[in-house]
Queue: 2 jobs
Job 1
Amino acid sequence: MNEVILLDSNMHEISSINIDLDCEVGTGNATNDFELSNATIQQLDAKGFYLPESEIGGLFEYSKMTTESNIKIFRGYSWRGLLTKALILPPTGSDYRVVSGNAQEIIADLLEDVLGGFFKVPEDAEAVTISNYKFPLYVNMADGIEGMLESIGYRLDIFAKKLVQGGAVQVFCQAVKAETVQGSFNGDSALPLIYEEDKMGINHLLCAGQGELQNRMKVDLYLDENGGISETQHYTGFDERTEFYDYSSAESREDLVDSGTKRLKELANSKILSVQSAENLDYTIGDLVTAIFPDGTQIVSPIVKKIFNISGGILTTQISVKGEQ
Amino acid sequence: MPKVYFQSSNGTKFDLKAFTGCKMQEANFHKYSWGRASTQKQFGEVLDRFTKDAQLYSAKIIFRGSVEDRREQVERFHFETERDITQMKFGRIYWGFDYIECFVIDSDTHPGTSPYETENEVTFYCPYPFWIEEQVIDVRPSEESIISTDKGYRTEDNLGYPYPYSYATAPNTSHFYIDHYAPSDFKLIAYGPFYEMYVNIAGNVYNVNYPVRANQYLTIDSRQSTPADKKCFVTSESGIETNVFDYRNPNYPLFKKIPGGSNLISYIRDYGLELTIFKERSEPR
């Protein structure tokens, strides 16, 4: 039975309660929010909730009630969602934020000024070294830290915990080593995987930029068998698949090549790894899924989304890996 | 044959076995059905969990006596059951030592087959579809034994007469026995004064670090139906209740059910405890 615990405005526990809950966390396009409904929450003047020592939790920032029911719907950002609403900025006088040192201390420094110091790093967090990591410009705090840790095979662990009786609940962030779950096609796997191989893609993109008619700027981009893109043709004859890319606002040939390359990657043959009905798994955001395709190709995709659902006291989870639609 | 009666939320009893006054003629309290949640597979399915819907019991109650007597009894029955509904407070059907919480949601009253009878066909609606038998274990300070009102080999005659049931194995440790096949919800009352309640029951620590003075008591109630602010609270001498859930020990589950069978209870016995076990069954014993 998974009972969540309600919190007051000072993050002190009010009581445990049985509620139905949906909570989605992850990087990129994950919503990082939750929705729950219950008639009792309002009476108790609760301001948030958490599931101890898990990433499930958040503060109520939206409510909705109808005249037909006394059940109120509450929504809010998950703990990770709050981190997505803060940005990592370059230091004054620098173009980028570049960090080196103990990742736990770097995370603590980044979080110090976020949401009034709401997040902490556990004192016993294991030290791990980062060297010259450059954050993307204006990346949000959650994705920025996750990206930094992904570069060294670690992930961001977020959990809420009550440390002392009568004390407030604290939300912690720390770097932990990413676990790897491995699967091979037709082989046993801890994770049921879908191996998708798309050979219906485009391997020749004719890109057209500024200019009129025959005077338009043109670049031919070609895909090779290793997934590389260049102006040298690889597939010919029956194997050639061509499409036109109209980018009339291209400012330069370099701009046209950059945009055309991105477009051709989207249209090219692809191998996609996705997770098939992965419920009740311990793997979480930042853990790595490695899969070996029938031709021996190995794809490694991090878990980027996890959806928690509590219904009737039963917790179920679903995960998605990067690249999954 | 066990005693069978309906008790409204304010305690008014209707003996459903009396041959004078009223008698339940038809009812089947010994029926139940489990549902199941499962995942379909190529061959069969994988069971995820069992489920159970709210229980409905149909019953026919015969009221006997003069017209005035019957009118008065029917009126009293409906007054009580309708008030339960308007106040959203459960009545209970008792079958021997077991009870189930219910509302009367359908009623059809009409003349009976005899001129001295009035028939009332009712439906009892039980949202929580389990019959409950309570076992009370009373642990007193500075006494070595603990007292239980559980069933053991009891008869109806010993109902309400606690008898020594468990024995002390050490100054602060005693055995008690729960005759049930599943872990059970409980209500634990600790009578002040004490600075901190710290009790180990069946290997789990139930710990609330909140001082309770003399004439105050702490209640921990694990039942799902208990309102969220009444699951861990202190009651003062004047009856004021203070929610102290925040002072639970986060390292141990405060509402962990107590397993059936032989159990140990241990703590520094300088204050008294009353532990009520709610043993749930699908049908009354």
Job 2
Amino acid sequence: MAGFWVIAEINPDGSLARASAELATLARELASTAGTEAHGIVVATEPSAAAKELATYLGDVIAIADPSLADHAWAQVAAQRAAEVIDTSGPTAILTGAASDGRDIAGTLLALLDGAILVNATAVTWAEGSGESVEMSVFGGKLITTSSFRDGVDVRIVTVRPNVVTAETASAPGTVRTESPKADLTLPSVAIVDHVAAEGAAAKIDDARIIVAGGRGIGGEAGLELVQQLADRLGGAVGATRAAVDAGWIPYAQQIGQTGKIVKPQLYLALGISGAIQHKVGMQTAGTIIAVNRDPDAPIAEFADMLVVGDLFEVGKALVAELDARG
Amino acid sequence: MTTVAAPPTSSAGQYRLTDEQLLLRETLHDLADERIAPRAAEIDRSGEFPEDIRQLLARHDVLALPFPERFGGVGGDLLTQCVAIEQIARADTTSSLILTVQGLGSLPILLGGTEEQQGRFIPDLASGAKLVAFALTEPEAGSDAGATRTRAVRDGDSYVIDGTKRFITNGSVASLITVFAVTDPEARTSKRLSCFAVEVPSEGFKVNRLEHKLGIRGSPTAELSFDGVRVPVENRIGEEGDGWKLAMGTFDRSRPGIAAQAVGIAQGALDAAVAYARDRKQFGQRIGDFQMIQAMLADMDARIEAARQVTYKACVEIEAGAPDGARWASIAKLIAGDTAMAVTTDAVQVFGGYGYTDDFPVERMMRDAKITQLYEGTQQVQRLVIARALLGKGG
Amino acid sequence: MPLNIVVLAKPVPDPAAAAEKLGPDNRLDRSASPSVINGNDEYTLEAALQLVEAHGGEVTLLAMAPAGGAETLRKGLAMGATRGVLVTDPALAGSDAWSTAKVLAAVLKDLQFDLVLAGFDTSDGVGGVVGAAVATLLKLPYLSSAAAIEPNPDAGTVRVRRISGSGFDVLEAKTPALIVGTQLLGAPRYPSLKGIMGARSKEVSQRSLADLGLQADGSDAVGGGAARTEVSARRTPPARGAATVVRGSAGEAAKAIVALLAERRLV
């Protein structure tokens, strides 16, 4: 078994993405069960900080500095650099994130390395004989499938959802080795010619522990302020349904649901959200779901832990007061 | 000795919805759910003509549906038009009226107008740039259309129209009005009237008032007065005396549309009632599990399906030129209108007290349904038409 | 200058029908639900239609699906696409992402295009990896997570606004290129009635594996028989119990919420 490889994603500030720390933890556990090694790869203009952080989770980290990434799109470059160092001499599992960057690099590696892929994993295990087992939630959450790779497939790529494992550092930090780019890039490059900052970049919801979300019922900016207040008190991020995004109250980056993000926070507080299927699939696996809605028959009652029937503004303000009183 | 009518021998009345009709139905179903239904309660509450819906329908070629392709229309046959009307009416009756009246008002021109007249009037109607209204009814001439008093007197190369029309849908928003007026007061009923395409605004034309109605509140129902309105001869549709025939011919083709509208209203009410029965819990279970509710919903569904099928069949028969087209049109409208009234009333019943409030759409649907038993010929008039087809004219 | 755009459009089980299921062979049972064009592909189709409305040109729908897929593509034709290309072959049933990418790449090799547009992911697979794999196989510039697409046909380039952690990156590449879109491209139009009536006269040509020079067996095989992954088990997730319903004053409700949060150590 040639090993488990994690392709790390980097935050804009150069630090290691939380989802990659989780992947590294997962890879380490799988490698230990399989009796093989886990490796991490960091490809960036300046990979050292993230590589050092990744090494607290993995025994072996390869840092590749590619200056072209300063003004070229990441995934195809990173995939080619990763392909230069990944040892594919035996069954090799490559773990990536399941969001945009992870998908981009996974799809590129699939073609570069002539491999196989399973996507959107909610669990990955390894067993003697059968190898990797990947669980995926399908059909809007109605079914969970367990899939595996057929014999004779060496390169096995899995894109993994956030919050599948909790990131846990290894008992002792691993080592970082530096590699330079080995060859010219064969795939056409894509230049980054400009950056546009989004107005009011909000806390990312992708791996937030706590999310307070507003739906159609919040009515507008005033309601959004209440949602933000509650998020602040609870130490969480602000999410929204498609209705709120379409109405222009909140950016698309915070949309949860079928055409937005799928999240798995420990707490999902839903204000003025009916719980229709398009939204439900985005949050139904949250640890605790609390909904506030005027309608006692809202569909969200079927899968929430608690439904508060009432006016979300009154209840929301009372909740803010109650949380403040606790200090 | 009268004989029983021979059994039908032609296969003209077979139909399946084509792929286009299915895609059209699906498209309008989505359009109605996503863009029209959310506006329905507000349209009813404000009583304002939904100009935004009219633009939406025009943009998606819905208003082009009743018109020939050579004038910018889509060339939809009667069945296709009814499929479209039903989907819109499911979401909002007022919005569906925009389409049905565009058909109703223009039918005299399509049936009796010259190619030149059609070329002059139809393109703007097909594009939805202009709306058309149908003006037959008067304060003293409702079911008794023969009692029409509005006069059109020939004067050189024009006619001068004087009189009052009442209950004219779109009367205040139309740019073109097909007006039925007496040109020969001495002639018998079926020859007294002529039809004119009156372009408005026009000197002497006035919208006196709009009715405050039980339902279809967003549809402007106007009283119009014609005080020496001059209309060029080129705007007379057909020959002098053709008016009655044009009006009756119009109804034969427009009544299925009203039937489709009624089917749509009923379907919308059933959908709302079913969703409610699924969610609403009383006595520890959802009310949809109670047999009395199940019986009501089942009866509603069966009646709607029956009304729908007779409406589709009527479309096919009329389009094929069946000699008893009038009977088919009236049967469809009779059955569908009564179905809509019964189903919407039962829908309110399923909702219980909540159904009586405007928190839910069924009370509006019930109010809207009533008109389908009244306009384009009351249910009683439909019965007269059917009876005449069975018995022949009185001797 | 006119643009030639290929839009990848996958027929999928209609999510609104909520009737998706796996067959006894653990493959998707496509007969269980009506088939519709994948929702995210309608966004990229809309973007393509707007681009050819602005620049001139044509939109071709490309799908790999069972034979009924031609009917599913009708809506895309009614929205305004010029033609459809359907790759269909019984051997393709049960294909994995790798096969799909190889087959699509093989078709695209024979098509002329300035842009290939792919949806963010599919409602049945939720993978979002096929676009990157196809771009790599064809050595096309790959631009993903597009919120806006601006081709410059005269210069032979395209710019894309890519959603990033802090807003947008503006990417630029030479055409032909492959772009993965997002919902931010703009809501898809309803087909106009004229479009619906006209769709029948638009061509949907078909390709089989043999037409593409591909095989279902052998070392370079594609299709279900060559799938490199398989579903070995399935289960329904445990149902969540029904919610505790709290009524009463806002103050009482707030206390009940906090009590639950405290119990679960969330505050």
